[in-house]
Amino acid sequence: MKICVAQTNPVKADIRQNINNHLAWTERALEHGTGMILFPELSLTGYEPGLAQDLAMDPDDPCLDVFQQVSDLHQVTLGLGMPLKGTHGTYISQIFFQAHSPRQVYRKQYLHQDEEPYFIPGKGQLFLSTGNLRIAPAICYEISIPEHAARVMQNGASVYMASVAKTRQGVDHAVKRLPEIALQYSIPVMMSNCIGICDQFLAGGRSSVWNKEGLMVGQLPEAREGLLIYDTATGEVSERLAG
Question: What pLDDT, in 10s, does the model give residues 111-140?
C-alpha cells in the first residue's frame, strides 16, 4: 500500500483557500495510487494559536464534506489538521476521513507549554485501520514524549505518522528523535511538516520518512510544497514537488 505525507504552505486563517490547496495535493497524490494522505498540524488554518478559538469548528462542519466525498469516491484516507471546538476549550486536532465511514478525530494529548494558554489536551489515542496497516497518529510535541510512542506501540501500531508545525531548529530535533522511534519499535515513521510563516516563526519543511531500521529513505526540501509517497510493500519512497 502507498501512504504519503504532504508538505503545504498554509494561508493564515483562510480555510477556504487551504481546502482548495489540500484538494489539489490530494488529486496529485491519487494520481500515484496513494491510499492515505496526512497533512501538517493545523493545516486548514495554519498554525495560529492566537486565532484558533475563533477559527475552531465542529468535525462535521459542512465545509469539510468535500473531503468525505473524495474519500468515498477514491477509497482514500485523508488526515487534515484543524482546531476543533470542545466543551471546555479548543483542541489541536487531526480529522480523518475514510471511505463510507464516520469522521474520526485525534485530539493532541500532550501540549507544549506555549500552547497551553490557547488549547486544552485531548484524551485517548486514535488508531486507523487502512489496508493491513494499523496507523497511529501523533501531533508535533507528542513525538518528544516517550510515553506516547511506547503506548501506541503496545497497542499494535504498524506505522507512526506525525503531523507537525516545526521551525528549522524543531525539525533538527525531530530528525534525531523519529528515527530512534523507528529503530526501537521496528516500524516505519513519517513526518508531515509545513512551510512558510506560522504564528511568529518560519516553518522548516523537510517532511521525512524513515524505514523500520531507522534509516531516512525520503525527505522534502526546506521551502517547497510537495508529497512523500511511501510504498509499504517495497519500502521505496518517491517525491512530488510543487512546480
Answer: 999 999 999 999 999 999 998 999 999 999
CATH number assigned to the domain comprising residue 19:
3.60.110.10
* Residue 16 belongs to domain spanning: 2-241
Q: What cell was used for 201?
A: 516563526
> Number of structural domains, the chain?
1
What is the model's pTM? 0.97
Per-residue pLDDT reduced to its tens digit, 209-228: 999 999 999 999 999 999 99
Cβ neighbours for 84, distance < 8 A, ≥ 6 positions apart:
56, 57, 58, 59, 90, 91, 93, 95, 105, 107
Q: Helix axis angle, 15-30 relative to 65-74, nearest 10°?
A: 10
* 15-26 exposure pattern, b = at least 16 Cβ within 10 A, e = fewer: beebbebbeebb
